[in-house]
Amino acid sequence: MTRIALVLGATGLVGSALTRDLLGGNWDEVRVLVRRPFALEHPKLRQIQVDWDRLEQYSEQFAGVYAVFCCLGTTIKQAGSQEQFERVDLEYPLAAAALAKEHNVKQFLAVSSMGASAKSRTFYSRTKGRTEEGLIAAGFHGLHLFRPSLLLGDRAEFRLGERTAAVVMKALDFAMVGKAAKFRAIPAATVARAMMNIALADTGGVHIYTNEVIHVIGKH
């Protein structure tokens, strides 16, 4: 069987780590949908420039794909408004899911967030929860939702709040045991490895991976 991966959000913190892992792993081809090309070359890599607001025009890129990895995500500050945030974190993932389902993609894996709930009072968590609900409704053979805590890694853009929080969380990591373990900051590379490991396991059904579980399955 030809194993093809499709990555959405390949230039982000988790997406970039995941793309490199996939290229070095047991995959025949790695397709990435990007707004603009980025500096990475590999015999297995196919970069496809897309207009995310017209994703349906690139439907053929989902053909023959075994697993879609959705690592799309932004912040309200970076997006500029709640409406733009919803477009990136809700509308784009669900549009991709519809195309994936249309082309019989077997596994769909998405980065969500700790605390995601469609009933949350917090706009961010509520939007993530709505995205999860939409992905579940799509009815994939295998749907895998990853809910990490604060992501650690070097971002292309500087986020003062996240940088400060990362320093504090690293300093307190030794104390994050028991019930506090679910709040431990987690390297983006660990989330990426967890996603790849789960995709290769070919597990059916809907699965939600909490932060402490991601720490374990993303170790190797």
Automatic annotation (TrEMBL):
PANTHER family: OXIDOREDUCTASE HTATIP2 (PTHR14097:SF7). It comes from Paenibacillus silagei. SUPFAM superfamilies: NAD(P)-binding Rossmann-fold domains. This is Uncharacterized protein YbjT (DUF2867 family). InterPro entries: NAD(P)-bd_dom, NAD(P)-bd_dom_sf. It comes from the Bacteria. Pfam families: NAD_binding_10 (PF13460). Residues 9-123 form the NAD(P)-binding domain. CDD domains: CC3_like_SDR_a.
